Amino acid sequence: MSAAFRKAAKARQRPHRERGQPAARTKLGLLEKKKDYRLRAHDYHKKQNALRALQKKALDKNPDEFYFKMIRAEVKDGVHVTKQPKDEITPEQLKLMRTQDIKYVEMKRVAEAKKIERLKAELHLLDAAGSGPRRHLFFVDTEREVREFDIAAHLDTVPELVDRVYNRPTIATLQRETVKGPTDPAHLKKLAQQRKNQYDLLRQRIEREKAMFVISQKIQTRKDLLDKTHKVKVKKETTTGPAIYKFKFQRKR
User: Fold this and answer.
1) What's the domain count of the chain?
2) Of 55, 88, 98, 215, which is least surrounded by CB within 10 A?
3) C-alpha span between 72 and 86 (Å, rounded)
C-alpha cells in the first residue's frame, strides 16, 4: 500500500466522538460509562438477593411465635424504637437507695479525710511555692532599736539561714554539730519540687473532700424531698451547696 493511498484513506476517516446526549435526558446528567453500568447492576442484584432472603425468612417464620420485643417496640417516623420499661419503685425503696448513696459517699469522704491528715503529718505544713507570704513580727521599744535591729543576732543563727522558716539551727548547734541533710543546690531544688508536688496533691485531696461533702448534702436534700410535707424553697442549689427548703412543722405522734 502506497503512502499516497494511506494518506487518502486517513483523510476519509471520520474522527471518533462520544455518543451525543439526547435533549430529553440532559436533566439526568452525563451518560454513564460501561464501568458505571456494571457497578449499578451489581448493586441492584445484591439488593434483590437481600429482599428474596428476607421474603424467605418471613415465609418460614412460625405465625404463633411470640417474643416480648413485639410489644416493646414501635415505629416512629419509620424507625423502630424500643420502649423502655418504667421502674416500679416505691417511695420507701427510693428512700433506702438514697440512704445507701449517702453512706457510700460519706465513706469515701472519710477515707479522703484520713489521707489528708496523713499527708499533713508527713509535710508538717512546711512552706511551699504558691503559699501566702510568711510574717514574723518582732517588737522593740525605740526607733533606735528598729534601725539597729539584727535578725540573725536576735534569732541566734547565721545570716545564711535567716530566710528559712523551718530547720533553722542556732550558732551553738552549728558549733556543736555539723549541718545534716543535703547541701547541693541541685539536690535542694529537687527536694523543693517534690515538696511542691506533695502540697499540690494535698490541695487536690482537700478540694475532693469538700466536693464529696457537698454531694452528700445534695443527696440528703433529695431524700428529704421525698416526704409529702409541705415545703418552700428558700435558696437555689449551687455548685458549692445544696438547695435550702423550709418545711412545715409537723408534730410527730
Assistant:
1) 1
2) 88
3) 12
Q: What does the pLDDT look like over 98-125, one tens digit per residue?
A: 888 889 989 999 999 999 998 888 776 5
Q: What distance in Å separates the CA atoms of residue 179 and residue 169, rounded to the nearest whole number?
A: 9
How wide is the angle at C-alpha 144 spanned by C-alphas 141 and 150, nearest 5°?
Answer: 90
Cell 454531694 belongs to: 215
Those residues with Cβ within 8 angstroms of residue 18's Cβ, 6 or more apart along the chain or in another chain:
31
**The model's pTM:** 0.47
Residue 60 lies in a domain: no
Exposed (0-12), middle (13-18) or buried (19+): which is 196, by Cβ within 10 Å? middle
CB-based contacts of 134: which residues, under 8 Å, 6+ apart? 127, 165
Residue numbers of the domain that contains 220:
91-247
233, part of any domain: yes
d(CA 133, CA 167): 18
For residues 105 and 117, what is the distance between their CA atoms, to the nearest angstrom? Answer: 19
